[in-house]
Automatic annotation (TrEMBL):
UniProt superkingdom: Bacteria
Biased composition (Basic and acidic residues): 130-162, 192-207, 244-262, 295-306
TM region(s), chain numbering: 751-772
Protein name: Fibronectin type-III domain-containing protein
Spans annotated as Disordered: 124-308
Record's compositionally biased regions (Polar residues): 163-182, 220-240, 279-293
Protein's UniProt keywords contain Magnesium: no
Keywords: Membrane, Signal, Transmembrane, Transmembrane helix
Residue ranges of domain Fibronectin type-III in the record: 296-387
Amino acid sequence: MKRKVKRMLAMFLTFIMVFSMATVYVSAAEEGTGKSTEAAGKPELSKKTADSVTLKTKEGYVYGIQENGSTWKWAEDKQYDKTAKTVSFTGLKAETEYVFAQKTKDAETVQDADQLKVKTEAAAIQAETPKQEEVKNETPKVEETPKTDDTDKNAETNKPQDDSLNTEIQKPEGTDQTNTGVEGNKVNVPDGTEKPDETQKPDDTNKPDGSGDVNPPTDMGNTLDETPAIDNNTAVNPPSDSLDPPKTDGDKKEEPKGDTSKSHQQQNNALVNKDNEIHNSTNTNTDKNTPQKADTPEKPLVEKVTDTSVVLKPGSDADKYTYSYKLALKDSKAKEVELTNDTGEFKDLKPDTDYLAYVMIKGNDKADKPYSDSDWSVAAEVHTLKAAADKPKAAPKLAEKTDTTIKLDTSTADLEYGVYLDSGDISWNSTGEFKGLTAGKEYKFVTRVKFDKDKQMESPVSDVLKVTTKKAAAAAPEAPVCIGRTENSITLRAVNGQEYAVLENGNPVKWQDSEVFSGLKPNTRYSFVTRVKYNPDEAMESKVSSSSSAKTIITFEGSSVTGIEVNGVYDKNAVVNIAANGNGMDNQKPESQDTRWVPESWKWGASAKGTWKKSPYTAKLTLNKAGKMELQVVFQLEEYTEKGWTDMAVEKKTITVPFSVKEQYTITASAGSNGKISPSGSVKVMEGNDATFTITPNKGYQISQVTVDGKAVTVKNSKYTFEDVSANHKISVTFKKLTKTVPKTGDTMNMAGYLMLAVLSAGAVFAVVVSAKRKKMNRR
């Protein structure tokens, strides 16, 4: 029986030991895994692309990406950038959502709160390279140079007025075509079609050896293929004694290489003199009644020339004879039609072309001494002007203007600019600037292409630009006058039609219509000017007035009321000493200021105005009425003048101090022996306030009873509070000895207890086993 009992005791002790050890193991396991259950937080994204995601890293954490929706692949060391504190996951798919996580290094699991979903960017779309067009291996066609009439490398291209004149163009050097060949190559082309170019053989007379077997070169004029339609003009054949006879080789050598027109005139003069000699000798042998040939007149004078017309007049004796005139192209080798008339006016000519003009005296058989037609005079050279340039496409543009000057835009080249005068004439210049104009007057401006009046027709004028000069600047008004000022503003006297500005460094900063300047600094002097308002597009800037100055007042900040607190609470019938101080009061003679604030009056509640005791400004308030009150202190602004400090009546400031006056009640607190109450005795409590009393028993005692105004009350945590006191009260407390030991609560078996129990159990089992072995040995 005893053996069974011992066995059962041993089994029981073994069970206790095993249970204790298991409890210790479970407690240790739970304590060791505490950190792993804490959430690490979502990882923070640094950047992402179409094939990569970069996360920001934190010390002590590892980062991974979820694979196949369940397993985690944690980043290797090479994926971490310790300098940038980032980890990168590459080789991802574009526009695909991935799940990333962070955890502490010893954590075994990943919670949902540690995961971050990131969708990669879309893949960049590569633009297709446009296909280049096939390049054909064809030789590009060279554009043919358009043919022009009367082309000269050193002169402008002459545009014919009509198709009555053929143009001859010099053939390039190296051709062997003679002048005869040139004439033979002329082809008559019907009107309205382009005539083929005619080429002249190059000049061979200027060779160093003087050789050449063709006529010396002359300025090839335009030949007339048909008679132009000119009123009162008759076409005649060239005279038999041609003015341009064939020249021999000897003539070529003697002819100067310079102006060929001079040699041509010399030949004409020689031929005319020779003809006159023959004529005179013939006349001496004729009958005296036969009319004599009139003397050959001087060459005609050019009265007027344009691009398409020439007006001739006799060189002398204009009123003595009747004349006939002839005009031919200069140095034309082709058969030409000469123009003749009795007026001397030739029209429909070619611009920029050389002509030869002649005059002769027409015969008169009714004169006292009848005479027949004279010979043609020596030729006078006439060159028609170039045609006028085209009309400018637009009217001139205004660049800038004042009351006496207007300047036009001169960005377009080769133009000149004109202004219409009162007479209707136009005054031209090439600068586009017109000065000395009248203020407020409208002017008309035009432009035209520049030209040489001796060589070209006047260009037509453009459309008209009308510009009115600005009005003259208005006279300067009187200086502005300050009529009011505050801490941060100054008000000037307003004048109709004027604007105002404040000066900085002697210059107006910004003009404004308002006479009020705000946003200024306190106790600072400013200077102001004014001027007459004007429209800058219509008038010159008005002249500025002389300046005047004004100073902002001293700031009210710094003024104060002491002796009573804002929102303070005071007992009824209490006496409060107050004091007031205005900003700037300590400066009796202004040095850096000319204004100050001075206390003027005070009142509180509904009471009448109080009286200050000056220097310093102090007063006593007897708070004889309960309730919410306000103390109002009024300050007056003063300025320093020649009369000393004087009031600025319009400037006043008020400081308002809210406070409360309440009734006062007494709470009498008492305690019996073996304890105390705090506070004790007569405790003053203001109306509406709370009062808390703390009860403390002596050691070995406890609160027995608490009464308030004779009634027992319940005490919580050894304290009692009177709330919103509105009357007098009494509180008393008694104490008694402790009768019971208060059991300790909250004791729990900790891991050390379990461990101790296990050790004791193990020791008991060991002792039982040892005892059993000894007894067994003893029996043996």
